Amino acid sequence: MLGKNRCIYPGEKVLLAFSGGPTSSSMLRQVQEGLNREAAKKLRFKPGIIYIDEGAVCGRTLDEREKTCRQVEAILQASGFPYHLVFLEEVFDLPASVLNSLSHRPADQAHSYKEAVADFTRWRQQCEKKEGAATSLEDRLAECSLQGCAWKERLAVLDTSSFPASHTELSRLFGAVKSLTAKEELLQTLRTHLILHVARRNGYSKVMVGDSCTRVSVKLLTNLCLGRGAFLAMDTGFSDSRHGDILILRPMREYPAKEIIFYNYLFGVPTIFTPGLGTKASDRASIHLLIESFLCKLQSEFPSTVSTVYRTGEKLSAAPREVDSGVPTAPAQCLLCLCPLDTNVEDGSSLQSMLLSEQLCPRPPAENCCETGRTQAGCCGRPPVVGDSSQLLPLLCYGCRLTVKELVSVQGKVCATRRAPASADAKVCSCSQDWAQGKVARSLSHHTFTRRLSASDAGLR
Amino acid sequence: MNAIMGTIKEKGQDSTVLAHVLRLLNERHGYGLRLLLLSVDEGIAGYRDDSLAAVRRSRGRLGLPLHVVSYQELYGWSMDRIVRHTGSRNNCTFCGVFRRQALDRGAVLLGADKIATGHNADDVAETILMNFLRGDVGRLQRCAEILTGGEGALPRCKPLKHAYEKEIVLYAYFQGLDYFSTECVYAPNAYRGHVRALLKDLEAIRPSSVADLVHSGERLAVRKDVRLPVQGTCRRCGYFSSQPLCKACVLLEGLNRGLPKLAIGKTNRLQKALLEGEKPRADLETEENSRVGRTIDF
Ligand SMILES: [Zn+2]
Ligand SMILES: [Zn+2]
Ligand SMILES: [Zn+2]
To answer: What main location does UniProt list (chain A) (predicted)?
Structure first.
């Protein structure tokens, strides 16, 4: 698969995203095999591995997480590749620049493979020159994980009060999201940000993700239902260039999950099971789980289902439907998923009608939380709860808006329930609202939004 | 003058509400449309009788001219006769293909310029899912559009595209509109049933799912290098078709030759056989039978 596509240059650093699951474990093994092959078929890149511990949002204790990390480390060590063990909490340490995709290297388009390789080597030499000077202490994360060793200290630190902000911020963020659907999306986003960051800090220019054919089909249908129709090709395609400097590859996407499990069994590839967000939940707890079980059931009745969905996905384009001739500038990117925005309002579109009905009958926002002050400005003379998000929403794609809206709308509810026992006390109400507006949005904005927001502010002025 | 055809389709409340709303807006805003109601009588005893009665009553209320075309007139076969002929296994193939064409054929007959169908948001979302699951990217790309070139000679529009099914039912209820609602008696195919159930589950998890799906359908883009079937016209009836013969003509031919099963599924070889004027070979039919269960037929 990799040889066929010729997208990795000799000597290039490639980061393998490893989760312990069957597909990424199999991917790791196949890369190992590929590096040991005889000269003609040999893979020539330099792999590294990243493992992200998501235990914090899956309700696991530190002990459990430590145990898993030890298992993971054993596998990663055995591979002989450099590895990075990262905790999801560390996403809050990321600099705001994570989402600024660096400018493209001049290598990517139109050239022949040979020219591209030459370009790449030139580029790498430049980078190496820079590297000597630029090792700052600002990023503790990248440094200690370079050796892959310091994770125990970093995990311990998550426990003590010396590092309190991240842990509580993360659980507060996820606690504020009502539905498992939005949680899954949020987790996906944070995970990607972390991977990108580690890749950039350590000079990886490609990331390999272990999505099987089955996974790709589930993702296609799930994302279709989440309003991400415009991005299906990007979200599931073999190579995903939306991040500019870092290319995401899905080398496993042709293999059905069954084949992968069989391969692992045959070659004794070890896997690790870690409970995810929805492990204990029912089929209907999230759109992700619903689609997965739907496809699985349908597949047992019509064995061509998964492959048909996969092939449908193959026929989709990453470029938006029509390029509006009137607008020459590149469309803005979504702040969270970095896809080109799909929110231009077209006549007769679903988005248009949705905005219209929101306008005609706005959802009763937090104004309800004080019976007295039903002013237009919002409750207690403060800006309405949506204030924060209304700044944010225009910067997001349709799908990410749905996720972020939930972040905010749940605040209204929290506010309302808090009011119930002490409805007379307007102060309590405004406090909770304060929390609603500030913390969640802030904790998100902390690492990602501020920069973009200020950038767009500057543009306005 | 632009004439728009309000059509009456299977799920009665949609077309009743469509006719009501179009008439109301036409009068209020002076669109200058000449509205006609077209209803298709598939010839299913009991089922259509009730719904046609409802259609007649609403025509009375709406004051719009109603035209009924029957399968018998259009194809020479009623659904009941088709079912008797084929057994009740694949009749929804017939009822889908025939109904789609019946609207066009009927509308052309009445001299209409445009067809307005009562497809609501739920229908569109369901169709998007169906087309995705069956891998029909050509339809997938078209089906979310509010105005399409149509599968037949006339352009089609879906004025209710953004209205949820629930809203339409409520509207009909509060307007006191008389409608007849039932599923096709010849049970709709299992696959569509699954998809419909999925849509309901999705809505239960995230209420905006229907609109989200429609948005997805509107925005997804098919790769430029994917070859989509070229739309031509049927050599026999002139209806739009990607094959030399349209599906209805192939199905009809199968019926008339007494080999209805041939037409369902492997149409390509039958196409060829029909065009070359030779008799379909007997082994085709056995092959057809062996394929049952492996292929999904919509
Ligand atoms: Zn987005
Ligand atoms: Zn039917
Ligand atoms: Zn024909």
So the answer is: cytoplasm
Question: Can you give the C-alpha Rg of chain B in angstroms?
Answer: 20
Tokens of B255: 């019926």
C-alpha R_g of chain A: 23
User: How many other β-carbons are positioned within 10 Å of the β-carbon of residue A323?
Assistant: 10
User: What distance in Å separates the CA atoms of residue A206 and residue A75, rounded to the nearest whole number?
Assistant: 22
B231-255 burial string, b = 16+ CB within 10 Å, else e?
A: eeebebeebbbebbbbbbbbbbbbb
Query: What token pair was written down for A218?
Result: 């589930």
Average pLDDT, chain B: 75
**Sequence-distant (≥ 6) Cβ neighbours of residue A106 within 8 angstroms:** A119, A123
A133-185 pLDDT, tens digit per residue, is 333 333 444 444 444 556 777 777 666 544 455 667 787 788 888 889 999 99
- Closest by CA to A233, choosing from B42, A381, A241, A225, is A241
Residues A393, A403: Cα–Cα separation, whole Å: 10
Residue of B nearest to A354 (CA): B211
> CB contact, 8 Å: A221 with chain B?
yes
Q: Which of A311, A305, A203 is nearest to A253 (CA)?
A: A311
The CA distances from residue B214 to A227, A287, A445, B129, B245, in Å, are 8, 16, 30, 10, 32
Look at the block and give the residue holding tokens 């990331």: A207
Do B103 and B40 form a contact (C-beta atoms < 8 A)?
yes
- Nearest ligand to the C-alpha of residue A403? 1
pTM summary value: 0.78
Report the alpha-carbon distance of residue B195 to residue A217 in Å, rounded. Answer: 16
Question: What is the Cα–Cα distance from A300 to B60, expressed in whole angstroms?
Answer: 50
The rounded Å distance from CA B130 to ligand 1 centre is 25
Is residue A213 packed enough to be buried (19+ CB in 10 Å), middle (13-18) or exposed (0-12)?
Answer: buried
- Give the closest ligand to the alpha carbon of residue A340: 1
Quote the ligand 3 centre to B74 CA distance (angstroms): 12
What is the rounded distance in angstroms from the CA atom of residue A224 to the CA atom of residue B216? 6
B226 contacts in chain A (CB < 8 Å):
315
CB contact set of A345 (below 8 Å; sequence gap of 6+): A351, A352, A355
Q: If 0-12 CB within 10 Å is exposed, 13-18 middle and 19+ buried, where does residue B154 land?
A: middle
Do A225 and B216 count as a contact with CB atoms less than 8 A apart? yes
Calculate the alpha carbon distances from A256 to A23, A213, A217, A274, A306 in Å. Answer: 9, 5, 10, 21, 9
d(CA A15, CA A52): 13
For this complex, say whether ipTM is above 0.90.
no
Q: Give the phi and the psi of residue B35 in degrees, each rounded to 5.
A: -100, 135
Is A350 within 8 Å of chain B by CB?
yes
